[in-house]
Design a protein that fits this description.
single chain; mainly alpha; Gyrase A, domain 2; Multidrug efflux transporter AcrB transmembrane fold; 2 domains; 3-stranded antiparallel beta sheet; 8 helices; 5 strands
Length: about 325
């Protein structure tokens, strides 16, 4: 069988001048198919070849002139098989034998069939995709998430003062617990997963906002700081609970019916929501009970960012 040449290469590039083989007119385009077969007498594994009409004539001429001699089959400039011609083959069907294993026969037939494709190999363009491309995207997303988290922390401290600082400690605990869970469960962090994690940060902050706004309301009603703190958590709980349950239900449906990136988003969001619920209600509440006793019974109005008007309202209520 003739060597198979690629249009973009010269003959001298494929076959070195010192190559002892002579090129014939038979190539892969005249090969109909190559497949694995077994000898009906010996049971040995073979590779059968079937040529079209043009290939049948060329193959008959080649085998007729080379009985008892080897014939090399080339693919991409390299010999893949060098069978010996036992007799002239006029039918256009031949077999290559030689003690093949089944795997070797499959590989040879696949290579012969791939060389028979009538499509020239031309390099139109090439592009190098760096293996760090995905890592770079993840790094940028993490950086964006950290910047957003820091921005939220600064806002909470600026607007809610000391309680805002407590919520910052709560957010740090939340982030550490979430990351540890991702590691333990083997959650693959994708871009969609980072998006779910960042969204859960927003829910954690929202929980603290509900509690602190309720705390302001309780103080306006004239309650002391300890009582107002306990009431703010108790009265905020139904809204916080319902919001988190609704989000978790949505996550369940996304995991159940979604695929790939959607599932990653839902899993990280669900984990984040659970921990945001824990840190906001348990961690923030525990720190509030521990620290608020340092303040006066009516509380320092500045620690919640009260305006002068709000401070006078509290005084009048009392």
């Amino acid at each position: 069988i003739a060597r198979i040449f690629i249009k973009t290469q010269q003959k001298s590039d494929i076959v070195p001048p010192t190559d002892p083989w002579k090129t014939t007119g038979l190539s892969g385009k005249q090969l109909k198919r190559a497949e694995v077969a077994q000898d009906s007498n010996t049971g040995q594994t073979q590779v059968s070849l079937n040529f079209d009409d043009e290939g049948t004539k060329l193959f008959a001429d080649i085998t007729g002139r080379n009985v008892g001699k080897p014939v090399a089959i080339y693919l991409d400039g390299q010999p893949i098989s060098i069978p010996k011609v036992n007799e002239a083959i006029l039918s256009g069907s031949a077999v290559i034998s030689g003690g093949f294993t089944l795997l070797e026969a499959k590989q040879l037939s696949q290579r012969l069939n791939s060389g028979a494709l009538p499509v020239p190999v031309e390099l139109i363009s090439q592009q190098k995709v760096d293996a760090t491309l995905g890592v770079d995207s993840l790094t940028k997303s993490f950086r964006a998430g950290l910047i957003g988290l820091l921005g939220v922390m600064l806002f909470m401290i600026f607007y809610y003062r000391f309680p805002g600082l407590l919520s910052v400690f709560s957010l740090v605990v939340y982030a550490l617990l979430s990351m540890a869970t991702f590691k333990l469960l083997g959650v693959t962090i994708t871009l969609s997963g980072i998006a779910g994690f960042i969204l859960s940060i927003g829910m954690a902050v929202d929980t603290n906002v509900l509690v602190f706004e309720r705390l302001k309301e309780e103080l306006r009603f004239g309650k002391n700081l300890h009582t107002a703190s306990e009431e703010s958590f108790r009265r905020s709980w139904p809204s916080i609970r319902d919001g988190h349950i609704a989000t978790l239900v949505s996550c369940v449906f996304l995991v159940w019916f979604g695929t790939g990136f959607v599932q990653g988003f839902a899993v990280t969001l669900a984990i984040g929501v659970l921990f945001s619920l824990f840190t906001a209600i348990v961690a923030t509440r525990a720190m509030s009970r521990l620290v608020f006793k340092w303040f006066k019974e009516d509380g320092n109005m500045l620690f919640l960012g009260y305006t002068k008007k709000e401070s006078s309202e509290v005084t009048n209520n009392k």
